[in-house]
DNA sequence: AGTGTGACACTGG
DNA sequence: TCCAGTGCCACAC
């Protein structure tokens, strides 16, 4: 077991804590982890999260609310479907009313 | 030990 | 608002 996974583990933890019908950005998670500049790492962690089914990566999007990782999901619009299923309006991989569904771990967690 | 890479974020034009 | 370029950190090879 590697303790170095702490970073990734945290990412998974926060991602799992995302409330239903809410989304967050990689940067927000990075800030919460203390690595705001490593927002890219968060995405990498998500890549590994594919191994885990407890990580709702579909609730994690970039700062623009764009489903950048959708392509990485199932290769289809599964990510968007999941978000819409939670009441989030997604058009063309772009989350609508992002301000309303946005969830900040640093503020609400 | 070094290089390449990435599901980003920020700034400037 | 959008496009392009830059910085940034941590992981994989």
UniProtKB/TrEMBL annotation:
GO terms for biological process: DNA repair; methylation. The keyword 4Fe-4S does not apply. Pfam families: DNA_binding_1. Residues 6-88 form the Methylated-DNA-[protein]-cysteine S-methyltransferase DNA binding domain. This is Cysteine methyltransferase. CDD domains: ATase. InterPro entries: ATL_DNA_repair, MethylDNA_cys_MeTrfase_DNA-bd, MethylDNA_cys_MeTrfase_DNAb, WH-like_DNA-bd_sf. Keywords: DNA damage, Methyltransferase, Transferase. The keyword Methyltransferase applies. One of its GO terms (molecular function) is methyltransferase activity. NCBIfam families: ogt. It comes from Polaribacter glomeratus.
């Amino acid at each position: 077991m590697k303790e170095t996974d702490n970073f990734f583990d945290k990412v998974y933890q926060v991602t799992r804590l995302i409330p239903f019908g809410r989304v967050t950005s990689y940067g927000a998670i990075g800030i919460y982890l203390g690595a705001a500049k490593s927002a890219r790492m968060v995405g990498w962690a998500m890549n590994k999260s594919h191994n885990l089914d407890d990580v709702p990566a579909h609730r994690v999007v970039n700062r623009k609310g764009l489903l950048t990782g959708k392509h990485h999901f199932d290769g289809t619009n599964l990510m968007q479907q999941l978000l819409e299923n939670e009441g989030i309006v997604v058009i063309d991989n772009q989350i609508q009313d992002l301000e309303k569904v946005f969830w900040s771990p640093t503020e609400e967690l």
